[in-house]
Amino acid sequence: MVRKDQERPGSVAGELGDLIESVERSARALNRWAKFWQIAEVSLGWSAAVLAAVAGALGLGQIVGREGAAILALSAAGLIAGNQYLGSAGRYERDIRRRNAYEALTRDARLEEAKAKEQRTTDLDEVLRALLRRQVAIKDMDHQAVPAEALGRQKWSQTES
């Protein structure tokens, strides 16, 4: 079975439409993941704060409640450690940056699609190559800062190296 991304291109304009569809799908998925990581960050952080506050109150209270305070303090520490391990805040920020880059790419691709009727096929081919390079740069930015190329901050006339 041949995957859609391995099929032969029908036309440059068709490839541009496929790129727009793919990028929009990626932006929606990243938006869902960003919301998930934001909820994870808030719930783990809030739970840890509440447990730590209750543990502190129990620890200052009666001598009988000290075991409970210790258990709650350990639970709060576990939640904090889990949150740090998951890196929810970093994942949220990275997904938001990638989503924004995909949305910018989508807008630029739609603009080029609208102008496609006025351009020669060779010009459209160069534009599509530049947009595809941006898509690759966005996919590769997981463990690094957002490259300027991902945001389209290069000239359209640049050729591939």
**Major sheet: size, sense and barrel closure?**
none
Poorly predicted spans: 155-161
Terminal residue distance: 33 Å
Order of helix and strand elements from N to C terminus: HHHH
Proportion of residues in β-strands: under 5%
Radius of gyration: 24 Å
Helix percentage? over 70%
| Overall strand count | 0
Number of helices: 4
What is the typical, i.e. mean, pLDDT?
Answer: 78
Q: What's the shape? A: rod-shaped
Task: Name the structural class.
Answer: mainly alpha
Structure notes:
- With 161 residues, the protein is mainly α.
- 73% of the residues lie in helices and 0% in strands.
- Helix 1 (12-60) runs antiparallel to helix 3 (88-115) and helix 1 runs parallel beside helix 4 (121-139).
- The longest helix is centred in the first third of the chain and has 49 residues, at 12-60.
